[in-house]
Write a structure and sequence with these properties.
By secondary structure, this protein is an alpha/beta fold. Helix content is 43%, strand content 11%. A seven-stranded parallel β-sheet has the order 3-2-1-4-5-6-7, with helices on both faces. Strand 1 (12-16), helix 1 and strand 2 form a beta-alpha-beta unit. Helix 1 (21-32) crosses helix 7, helix 7 packs across helix 8 (263-270) and helix 9 crosses helix 10. The protein starts with 11 loop residues before the first strand and ends in a 19-residue tail after the last helix.
Amino acid sequence: MATKGPSLAGQVAVVAGATRGGGRGIARALGAAGALVYCTGRSAARHKGMDRPETIDETVALIEQAGGRAVAVRVDHTNEQEVANLAARVRSEAGRLDVLVNCIWGGDPLVDWSKKFWEIDLAGVRAYVDQTILSHLFTSRHLAPMMVEANRGLMIEVIDGHFAGYRGHILYDMTKAGLARMAYGMAMELARTGVVALSLSPGFLRSEAVLDHFGVREENWRDAIAKDEFFAESESPLLVGRAAVALAADANVRRKAGRIHFASDLAREYGFTDVDGRVPDFPRLFDAKVREMAAGPLDETARFLVWARYCQIHQDPERRELALLLLAKALGLKDLGVGLAPVPLDHVRS
């Protein structure tokens, strides 16, 4: 997996949540760029954190097979003492930390997408918040001091979606918006240091679970487009990984502090591609499809997709015209109030 991209030789990274998906992709890309990568998570040899086969040991093996260096450290990031022990180990063994990536998730089993907020079972909410939000705070709290002391480094919060709108479920939205806000807040508090914090979002990610869902592998992923046309603009986990590398190698990354960055946008900016040489553009495809749907009668599936896209984009000035089309002509909704309506005209950039 050797790349011709920027070098991170001599740097040390911690990828919290390196077991699978985007976390594994980021860990592999950082390793391929020359960084020593500490891969953490709950799923390790003889210890499974979720009902999935992937482990941090496998992630380390993939990095080493590609000629990189990595260390697997089993950590439950909801346990503050385990996170503190991780920080002490990195300090003792490596003596520095240049990149911290928070890609901890594991919340899927705790979200019932069919339930509205007044219907959800609250029994698992505290566990959900611990796993998806507090785990990130614990990790940043204990690993950031090494970076602040050295007055350099990059902290990346991996989220889902780069629009300010609603993400479809109260718990999921609370988490993903909360993590973006956490990165923004950390960036503010780091403003007088040389450490940068920001958010990074992949697009339609071909994670191990998604590939399993479609019954394909990375080698033949295009076979699944027949089942879901949106899959045509999906991306491998290595695209967001290469985005993390590009950010870590950018001497001027400070100008990106506090903002949400989309992996494919960064690919176009920095000039890298996915493993197949493409730069996916899922938002463009989604916008085109819902515009097409909005032109005719909506069946149940189309109405769901049009509403989902409206929720995501209605606060985006660049998509105001599309939001108006979906609202007025397709969904037929009126008098939503300024907070739910398309962004006001005076907010649109001239």
